[in-house]
Design brief:
The complex is a heterodimer.
Chain A (H helix, E strand, L loop, with lengths): L7 E2 L4 E6 L2 E6 L1 H7 L2 E6 L5 E2 L4 E7 L3 E5 L4 E6 L2 H4 L3 H4 L8 E5 L11 H7 L4
Antiparallel strand pairs in A: 1-2, 2-3, 3-9, 4-6, 5-8, 6-7, 8-9
Chain B lengths: L1 E3 L2 E3 L7 H10 L1 E5 L4 E6 L3 H8 L12 E7 L5 E9 L4 E5 L4 H11 L5 E4 L4 E7 L3 H8 L12 E6 L2 E6 L8 E7 L3 H15 L3 E3 L2 H10 L33 H10 L4 E7 L9 E3 L5 E11 L4 E8 L9 E6 L2 E8 L11
Parallel strand pairs in B: 3-13
Antiparallel strand pairs in B: 1-2, 3-9, 4-7, 4-8, 5-6, 6-7, 9-12, 10-11, 11-12, 14-17, 14-19, 15-16, 15-18, 16-17, 18-19
Classes of the chains: A alpha+beta, B alpha+beta.
């Protein structure tokens, strides 16, 4: 499994990657592998303001449904509409075209509360 | 891996559940189903005993034929579903892993003198080879071609020196068969079939439990504990066709009474939009009144739909009826559809 060195990670396996003044949020390669084939994704609408730890959507794999948690507080600026037709994008390109939402963070410094790539990799047992 | 009736079984192999499903629909899937139980019933009274125990007609079952049937309790509810094979000197009964012990105890409790019941499960291994190229593959490997065997027929053959009872049955909606053979040859035969398929240029892969479930679900086949169980009677589950009311069988009296007073609920198929329906989710009408619940549900890879099987009030069971499935508190649009979603190969 791969880890995106440019991203930070939540304990609940969402990643957050700062690009300009927006944060790209998705799930890690490790998480998609654990979930198995992803068959459905439901995301909150653009404009929604959410606190860190609040649910921003649900991801359903062949096995089960899992909630998705905000890695940091902010408002949803974009959702990845391509996932409606092809949810397996998250399996194939979790850090690329399989991103979930773009967040305008309340405070970009909140990124620092998340795990660095190396720490996350060791948490999931992948060095 | 998942625990299943005391066996450790893979939910999916590294191939992934959806691709495993696809391979079985387009070429060949190999299923390690050693967890299935096998009983051999013999003795002078074996035929009348088997006939009384199972719901389907077996009096016309000749060598080399097999038939799908239900094992019912006195209430007409489903202890198990099984296959009955007519062997030259005995009856070969194939049952579900999770019910093996209770089935055996039930059969033994009903057996009269002149009936011998032997549990052959431990010494017998079972591999299913399923898919449009399964028969072609097995023909290339077996000493006696299996293609000469009709659907629900069986034959004895040999693959790489291993004696095999081949039944042209399965649980996927595809052509193919199920192989019974001595358990100590399991790994050898499993690897031999996969290697020979590769040499022959026939795409074949190992298939896990998740794809086994989605394949059977699309093809409209029941899974015990879901569409059928000891709290579900054969008629509400839609299995009148598997009951021979011209003979005596355990559960018949109860089913006749149920038929007279009318069904309280019926098994239906639902197509759902806006979410994945799953077991236990409630089904409601457009006014929000709960009219039933889902017993199975998933994304169906071949028909590319989210679908459920549910028990609902009979008045809500007609195809085309608009209903809702409550997914995490949200009512999602659903429509009653004809089952199965995927027409099995042998019915096309």
């Amino acid at each position: 499994m791969s880890v995106d060195a440019k991203a930070r990670y939540a304990q609940s396996h969402e990643y957050a990657r700062l690009e300009g003044d927006l944060v790209i949020v998705g799930i890690s390669d490790h998480a998609q592998d654990e979930l198995g084939d992803i068959v459905f994704i439901e995301l909150k609408e653009v404009g929604k303001k959410l606190e860190r730890g609040q649910v921003f959507g649900t991801i359903e794999s062949v096995k089960a449904a899992s909630d998705l948690y905000m890695p940091l507080s902010g408002s949803i600026e974009a959702v990845n509409d391509d996932l409606q037709a092809d949810p397996a994008l998250v399996n194939r390109e979790p850090y690329g075209n399989g991103w979930l939402i773009k967040v305008k963070p309340n405070n970009a410094k909140d990124m620092e509360a998340l795990l660095e790539a190396k720490a996350y990799a060791s948490m999931v047992g992948e060095e | 891996m998942a625990g299943f009736a005391g066996y450790d079984m893979p939910i999916s192999y590294p191939t992934g559940a959806i691709e495993e499903h696809g391979i079985t629909r387009r070429s060949v899937g190999l299923f390690d189903i050693d967890h299935m139980g096998q009983f051999e019933i013999s003795g002078p009274s074996a035929e009348s005993f088997v006939s009384r125990m199972v719901s389907a007609r077996i009096s016309d079952l000749r060598v080399p034929m097999s038939r799908y049937s239900l094992l019912l309790n006195e209430e007409g509810c489903v202890l198990d579903d099984l296959f009955v094979y007519r062997l030259p000197k005995s009856w070969w009964i194939v049952v579900n892993a999770s019910n093996r012990e209770t089935d055996l105890a039930w059969l033994k409790s009903k057996a009269s003198p002149g009936v011998q019941i032997d549990d052959r499960s431990d010494e017998t291994y079972m591999i299913a080879v399923q898919g449009p190229k399964a028969i072609q593959l097995l023909d290339a490997l077996a000493t006696l071609p299996v293609s000469a065997t009709e659907r629900f027929g069986w034959c004895k053959t040999e693959i790489t020196g291993v004696p095999i009872l081949f039944g042209r049955t399965g649980y996927t909606g595809e052509d193919g068969g199920e192989l019974f053979f001595p358990a100590e040859k399991a790994l050898y035969l499993w690897e031999y079939i996969l290697n020979r398929a590769s040499e022959l240029g026939i795409e074949a892969k190992a298939i896990g439990l998740a794809a086994r479930d989605s394949l059977r679900f699309e093809a409209g086949m029941p899974l015990h504990g879901h569409e059928i169980s000891t709290s579900i009677n054969a008629l509400e589950a839609g299995f009148k066709w598997a009951c021979d009311f011209t003979k005596d069988f355990i559960g018949k009296t109860a089913l006749k009474a149920i038929a007279t007073r009318g069904l309280a609920r019926k098994l239906i198929g639902l197509e759902v939009s806006g979410g994945v329906p799953r077991e236990g989710y409630k089904v409601a009408d457009n006014q929000g009144r709960v009219v039933g619940s889902c017993v199975a549900g998933m994304f169906c890879p071949s028909v590319k739909k989210y679908a459920a099987n549910a028990f609902v009030e009979p008045g809500m069971a007609n195809p085309g009826t608009a209903l809702k499935v409550i997914i995490r508190g949200q009512p999602k649009d659903a429509m009653v559809v004809k089952r199965p979603l995927y027409i099995p190969a042998y019915r096309r």
